[in-house]
Amino acid sequence: MGKKMNNIITLTPKAVEKAKSFSEKRGGYVKFGIRKGGCSGYMYDIGFAKEVSEGDALVRQDGAEVVVPSGAKEFLRGSTIDYQDSLMGAGFRIQNPNVTKSCKCGHSVK
């Protein structure tokens, strides 16, 4: 199992609620990562993990457990994860203080 670290990201109460709900339904963890792509160099990669891989961080907060892959820890450190449900769509939103550049689509960051 990955190293347990609670200081990488912070979940808002709504994000905690949704992460717990998704984990209960699917039997695993919500995963917050990054991948190369997009017009600014990287894109957030929000998915699901059945287990915690070696080197990944298992973040525990208020009963929710989420995974941050090893390659994303430094990119996401200090970020706040929220869950928003609006007319424009529902989903997790990442407020990342490490972003130096983003594009108009809102999904690509550097």
Explain what the structure shows.
This protein is α/β, with parallel strands linked by helices. The protein has one domain (3-109): HesB-like domain (Hypothetical Protein Aq_1857, Chain: A), CATH 2.60.300.12. The chain has helices spanning 13-26, 73-76; strands at 3-4, 9-11, 29-36, 42-49, 57-61, 64-68, 79-86, 89-95, 108-109. Strands 1-5-6-3-4-9 form a 6-stranded mixed β-sheet. Strands 2-7-8 form a 3-stranded mixed β-sheet. Strand 5 and strand 6 form a beta hairpin. The protein is globular. Mean pLDDT is 87; it is low at 1-5.
Order of helices and strands: EEHEEEEHEEE
CATH topological fold name: Hypothetical Protein Aq_1857, Chain: A
Distance between the amino and carboxyl termini: 29 Å
The profile of the biggest β sheet is: 6 strands, mixed
**Low-pLDDT segments, ≥5 res:** 1-5
The helix fraction, in percent, is: 10-25%
Strand content bin: 35-45%
- Oligomeric composition of the shown chains: single chain
Global structural class: alpha/beta
Task: Kindly state the number of beta strands.
Answer: 9
The CATH homology group name = HesB-like domain
> What is the CATH architecture assignment?
Sandwich
Spatial strand order of the main sheet: 1-5-6-3-4-9
> What is the class in the CATH system?
Mainly Beta
Integer-rounded radius of gyration: 13 Å
**How many domains comprise the coordinates?**
1
Mean pLDDT: 87
Based on CA inertia axes, which overall geometry fits? globular
